[in-house]
Amino acid sequence: MSLYLDFESSISAADKLLAMYSELRKLRGLAQRGALSGENKDLLWLPRSAVVASLSALDAYVHSIIYDRLPHALRLNPVPLALCEAMSAVIPIKNADSFRSAVPVLASNDSFAYLTNSLKERTLAFLSYQAPEKIAAGYELIGVSDIFARVSAMWPGPATSADDIKRYLANYVKRRNQIAHEGDLEGGGAERSMQPDYARGCKDFVVNLASRLNRVVYGPQ
Fold first, then answer.
1. In whole angstroms, what is the distance from residue 48 CA to residue 14 CA?
2. Measured between alpha carbons, how far is 67 from 49 in angstroms, rounded to an integer?
3. CA nearest 124: which of 182, 68, 54?
4. For position 103, what pLDDT does the model report?
5. What are the Cα distances from residue 209, in Å, to 61, 165, 204, 206?
6. Which of 158, 135, 157, 159 is nearest to 216 (CA)?
7. What is the DSSP letter of 159?
8. What is the mean pLDDT of residues 189-198?
9. d(CA 104, CA 108)
């Protein structure tokens, strides 16, 4: 459960950014709602930042779950195929040199921990777990297949099928990338519109998704 508490601490950055947006509107003598004039549109970088913070919190959470569950996945019978494929790059034994590289693993008192750390350092630390297909691949490593179908089964209400959830997530990730990598600019150089409610919706969606991802792996808390 501590991993989810870490997520809650991380996602709170989005709330703080949105609260800062509201407070700065007040300090500038602006109504709490309504379009901003040109000289005040700089405030919209706070909800934009909240979108980035929300997806970053999800990314960090999925990483933490994978790191936590990998040693358990290595003890499954059978070991998940996706994990076998990933580990084959960590300890390939094809010749004398690769055997020499594998000796620390073979000699380790806790070879599963050694393998987990090696996979993390060589591969996983450089991956992003935000896009639906990346998250699904990450959960395959720890032996959890069809993760979005499992999440959907615990998510009541309309538009909560696995495809719906993946579509919403993909759209939020796309906007996050536009903000983080493109300055949230259109092709002609104008800033894309941003509504604080969009950022709040993104944050709420990520919280709902992460809470159900947590239940899939650890059960009701």
1. 10
2. 27
3. 68
4. 66
5. 11, 8, 9, 5
6. 135
7. S
8. 93
9. 6
